[in-house]
Amino acid sequence: MMSVIRRSTHVSIHHSLVCRRRLVAIAATCGAATTLAACSSDSPTAARAPTSTTSLADAAFHHAGHLTTLNRLKAALDSAQETANGGFGLNMWGTIVDNSGMVVAVAFTGDKENDQWQGSRVISAQKANTAEDFSLPDLALSTANLYSAVQPGGSLFGLQESNPVNTDAAYGGKTADYGTPNDYMVGKRIGGINVFGGGLALYDSAGNLLGGVGVSGDASCADHNIAWKVRHILGLDFVPAGVDPVVTVPGHTDDNIVYDIDPMTGKSPSGWGHPVCNAATESIGLALPTTYPIRHH
To answer: How far, CA to CA in Å, does 234 sit from each of 122, 143, 170, 194?
Structure first.
């Protein structure tokens, strides 16, 4: 909840309870950006009070309720997976983490758990964690952007070994609960570093870094395409800047996948290149800033 200048103990408690109820109610029908603003206009002092990114993430993901966030992620993942992404058309796993790396929701496409690659559940969480961990309020890095940088001789060589997955958070519980509100990863910090396509940082309309989303289950290039669409559908793609050298909007860069690895040398001139999976994923990926443009704040 937003911090409020206390006029009296009674008023402060009453305002807090009202805001909590409104956040839950609004989140059931609106996007995270609306939810974040739900209590900002109740009093002049509340509007002026400083708000931390942590409290914004709490409002967007936690106070809105894990079930609400799961349902929004599930709907976005289903919608994105059904579009042309250039991969194999496989079912997907998706995970959202908050800005502390805590898993908030895990979802999948398909009729049931196990209609997807089993290993992709944890990989999706790993991707979400990586994008959140290595993005900043003024610079976003997708997991696709990290591929070349972590190769031998790259500027971030060894990064993929730096923050291993918390296996105690990843594999416990009942497999029947995976992808449900009771998924064992929910409420835990998963850790892990992933260095191929499928993970993106999440930004609200004020440019606050709220967390990350990761998807996995197809070719890594298709994973990136799906993740980009999921973030767009969630309305959390107010990306401040990125390392993609292709500038679609003058004066504004983004965190799209970069396809500039020289097939002869294996080197990326930009230092942020990702391998091409196939012509279809490449074409769809390069067009994403036009077909699903990032928003500006």
So the answer is: 21, 19, 25, 22
In a 13 Å sphere around the CA of 157, the CA atoms on its Cβ side amount to: 5
Residue 55 CB-half CA count within 13 A: 13
The predicted structure's pLDDT at residue 54: 85
Residues with pLDDT less than 50, the chain: 1-49
Considering the entire predicted model, what is its pTM?
0.83
CA distance 146 to 156: 8
- Give the pLDDT confidence score for residue 10 in this predicted structure: 38
Rounded (10°) CA dihedral 185, 190, 195, 197: 30
Q: What is the CATH number of domain 62-291?
A: 3.30.450.150
Greatest C-alpha distance within the chain: 70
Query: What 8-state DSSP symbol labels residue 242?
Result: -
In our burial notation (b when 16+ CB lie closer than 10 A, e otherwise), range 176-209 reads: ebbbbeebbbbebbbbbbbbbbbbbbbbbbeebb
Strand, coil or helix: 57 = helix
Q: Quick check: helix, strand or coil at residue 212? A: strand
For 284, counting Cβ atoms within 10 Å of its Cβ (0-12 exposed, 13-18 middle, 19+ buried), the class is buried
The span from the CA of 176 to the CA of 166, in Å, is 21
Neighbouring residues of 133: CB distance < 8 A, sequence distance ≥ 6: 101, 163, 193, 212
Residue ranges per domain, the chain?
9-51, 62-291
Strand runs labelled E in the chain? 93-98, 103-108, 199-203, 209-216
In the chain, % helix, strand, coil (3-state, to 5) comes to: 40, 10, 50
- Distance, in Å, from the CA atom of 244 to the CA atom of 139, rounded to the nearest integer, reads 11
DSSP bridge pairs for 207: none
The reported pLDDT for the residue numbered 98 is 96
